[in-house]
Design a protein that fits this description.
Helix content: over 70%
Strand content: under 5%
Largest sheet: none
Shape: globular
């Protein structure tokens, strides 16, 4: 792909781009992406109080939508309060004068990146697209939508499901005589864990898209994915342990199950891409 990017086929009436021209084009794609992040980040920063109270600190609130929804689901299934989680009674702290300001910058920047992800990927696609063949571009129709869809699906999973389970477990976990210990996590620690969950799940959920792309370029096949399923399970377990900051098996299982289902979906997607490749080769031979 790197070689093909440097050998883009010029359109009619255009000269072939040099290496410096490619760097210049890449620079502008990155610049526009950063501008999008900054613009959205400024909007977030101007509303940082609301964003922090109702979005960032949401999983730490006892009335968070996930806690209420799970509790209502348990009552609807006539299971009583079995799905209701214990209340969170914890306050965060900062250890430096600039902590809250720098945390606001982090929230604004990362929020800008997440919200601008479709545009950022669109800029990346615009840079890569000229290096692709017309048939490859045709098969990649809708790629911006699907990449963005799975990213936001994973980010929502990390925020609305995995995050509440993780922080509820960690905030209520005690060791020894609880009256001797008082948990006072820092704001930076909380933001790191929250962002790792959101971004980690967002990236991990791109598995079907990655499977389709690798099959189209001939690096993997459906048979390969099926034969390596047992190894994939081990890798998914490791990824689940990395994404989840809590050591409890419940949170890791919450990550493992959807990732395994996504792996199964990747096999289905790979089959479709493989059949498309076979049909293309058949047309070329005929």
């Amino acid at each position: 792909m790197a070689i093909r990017l440097l050998n883009r086929v010029p359109k009619e009436g255009q000269e072939e781009m040099t290496f410096v021209d490619h760097l210049e084009a890449l620079r502008w794609h990155i610049t526009r992406s950063l501008l999008a992040i900054i613009v959205v980040g400024i909007v977030i920063f101007l509303n940082i109080d609301w964003i922090f109270d109702y979005v960032i600190a949401g999983p730490l609130q006892n009335d968070f939508v996930t806690y209420k929804g799970l509790c209502s689901l348990g009552n609807w299934l006539h299971l009583g309060n079995s799905f209701c989680m214990p209340p969170i009674t914890i306050k965060m702290q900062t250890t430096a004068f600039s902590s809250q300001f720098m945390s606001s910058i982090t929230i604004a920047f990362m929020g800008g990146f997440i919200a601008s992800f479709p545009y950022i990927f669109w800029e990346f696609w615009r840079f890569v697209k000229p290096a692709l063949k017309p048939t490859e571009v045709k098969h990649a129709q809708g790629i911006i939508f699907w990449v963005s869809f799975f990213f936001f699906l994973g980010a929502a999973f990390g925020y609305f499901l995995l995050g509440p389970f993780t922080f509820n477990f960690l905030s209520n976990y005690t060791i020894g005589n609880s009256h001797l210990l008082e948990a006072k996590p820092t704001l930076d620690d909380y933001l790191d864990n929250l962002l790792n969950l959101i971004l980690g799940c967002g990236i991990a959920f791109e598995l079907p898209v990655l499977s389709y792309a690798l099959t189209k370029i001939g690096l993997i096949t459906p048979a390969f994915l099926k034969s390596t399923r047992k190894y994939a399970i081990v890798v998914i377990l490791v990824v689940s342990a990395v994404i989840t900051p809590s050591p409890d098996w419940t949170s890791q299982l919450l990550v493992f199950v959807p990732l395994y289902l996504l792996y199964q979906l990747s096999i289905v997607v790979s089959k479709r891409a493989f059949k498309e490749n076979e049909a293309k080769e058949k047309e070329e031979w005929d």
